[in-house]
Write a structure and sequence with these properties.
By secondary structure, this protein is of the alpha/beta class. Helices cover about 45% and strands about 15% of the residues. A 7-stranded mixed β-sheet has the order 9-8-7-6-10-11-12, sandwiched between helices. Helix 6 (about 185-205) packs parallel to helix 13. It starts with 6 loop residues before the first helix and ends with a helix. Bound molecules: 1,4-dihydronicotinamide adenine dinucleotide and 2-oxoglutaric acid.
């Protein structure tokens, strides 16, 4: 029987370690071991067959010291309070590590979107919005897409919030369609940030990117775009997977064809054919002998049970929390580099920040401007983390937490809200 891993406990383990290395007293950071606010809501939905089903929804605000809370909303059968608490805290650290003026939040609804019609999903998203309305707002807490949510869901949330306010409020969500105030480049931003961060890292260690092999677990928004952009940079994507299958091709998969297939096939790769492609198991994908492994699906994918099988030289965490604490320590001791989630996948929230600023200005920036600014923010954050990593001799994860935690603690001191 597999162990149940608690992602919030994983977050606390790293937080305590970083706090110790920063020489923080418990008083200075104890509040950050707790969420500021945790809202659990019942979301009744009339299903297409006339039954009423009551889903459980969450919105957790971990910390708002540095600005309004920010973070995505996921629809997933395994969503629970501990998961959403961890994801909210990771948003606090992520926004601090890239130094954008936000705190951290996250939301979720425990449901199986694969078994729901679009009409049911829409009614659920609207009702959930109404239930969390008292704690969200463009100056308080701004949702965005995450697993199984996208621009369409953000548009429903924006519409519901706007209906209840009586006027259009585009700044209530980010990641919405461009036609209603979304930002150019947001859809690609998380995958772009993953690509930029990997290139920043390769630049430091002097590896040549051309012909490096890559395996990507998860082929949704983040994984498919990271795969496409890494492929465009000359890396060879030899394996991809999603919840329906995992695929391997030694010579490199045709990523554009794979993305086109997934879009036609309800975002699933099962049944995809290409000369020389093999179906493998998800476990085998994680254990492939590749240069770079990109977990881009869910938490706790690399854990005690399978960490010894990992052969990749570099793991870049496109997903939030894909590696448990035990596995992280194991990989560190083995010399496998892990580029941590709060740095590697921060591109999404950076462009969300640009979207929110554009909404406040009622102005639209062009895509080159957005991508160039994203690149600058990601580079600066990488350099800051790298410096701590080298100077303190700690893993990049601990270094990233140290950068983030010192920013949040110093903001708390400045605001005089200590402890
Ligand atoms: N969407 C965004 O802007 C951001 C997302 N993230 C994180 O990236 C990860 C992926 O999110 P999205 O791409 O947005 O979600 P998505 O819903 O677009 O894609 C998730 C993908 O993972 C696959 N998947 C699910 N379970 C799997 C399993 N056991 N094995 C292999 N594949 C599996 C799904 O089939 C799908 O292809 C999550 O951890 C999310 O929190 C992080 C930063 C921003
Ligand atoms: O774009 C955002 O506001 C947050 C995206 C997100 O949920 C994440 O970075 O995990």
């Amino acid at each position: 029987m597999l162990k149940k891993y608690n992602p919030f406990q994983n977050m606390l383990d790293v937080l305590d370690d970083a706090a110790k290395r920063l020489d923080l007293s418990e008083n200075e950071y104890i509040t950050l071991r707790h969420s500021e606010r945790e809202l659990v809501v019942s979301v009744p939905v009339v299903m297409d067959d006339g039954r009423t089903e009551v889903f459980t929804g969450y919105r957790v605000q971990h910390n708002s010291t540095r600005g309004p809370c920010k973070g995505g909303i996921r629809f997933h059968p395994e969503a629970d309070l501990d998961e959403v608490k961890a994801l909210a805290a990771w948003m606090t650290w992520k926004c601090a590590v890239v130094n954008i003026p936000y705190g951290g939040a996250k939301g979720g609804i425990k449901c199986n979107p694969a078994k729901m019609s679009e009409a049911e999903l829409k009614r659920m998203a609207r009702r959930y919005t109404a239930m969390i309305l008292p704690i969200i707002g463009p100056e308080r807490d701004i949702p965005a897409p995450d697993v199984n949510t996208d621009g369409k869901v953000m548009a429903w949330i924006m519409d519901t919030f706007s209906m209840l306010k009586g006027y259009a409020v585009p700044g209530i969500v980010t990641g919405k369609p461009v036609e209603i105030g979304g930002s150019l480049g947001r859809k690609e931003a998380t995958g772009r940030g993953v690509m930029l961060t990997l290139l920043n890292f390769l630049g430091k260690i002097g590896f040549k990117k051309e012909s490096m092999t890559v395996a990507v677990q998860g082929f949704g928004n983040v994984g498919s775009i990271a795969a496409k952009l890494l492929h465009d940079e000359g890396l060879k994507i030899v394996a991809i997977s999603d919840s329906s299958c995992a695929l391997y091709k030694k010579e490199g998969i045709n990523i554009e064809a794979a993305i086109a297939y997934s879009e036609r096939n309800n975002r699933l790769m099962a049944g995809y054919k290409e000369a020389g492609i093999e179906v493998i198991s998800n476990e085998k994908l994680l254990a492939l002998d590749v240069d770079v492994l990109v977990p881009a699906a869910l938490e706790n994918q690399i854990k005690e049970e399978n960490v010894a099988t990992i052969q990749a030289r570099i793991i870049i965490e496109a997903a939030n929390g894909p590696i448990t604490t035990y596995a992280d320590e194991f990989l560190h001791k083995k010399g496998i580099v892990v580029i941590p989630d709060i740095l590697a996948n921060a591109g999404g929230v950076v462009v969300s920040y640009f979207e929110w600023v554009q909404n406040a200005q009622s102005f639209m920036w062009d895509e080159n401007y957005i991508n160039n600014n994203l690149e600058k923010v990601m580079k600066k954050a990488f350099e800051e983390v790298w410096q701590v990593h080298i100077e303190q001799g700690v893993s990049m994860r601990i270094a990233a937490y140290m950068v983030a935690l010192s920013r949040v603690v110093s903001a708390k001191k400045l605001r005089g809200i200590f402890p």
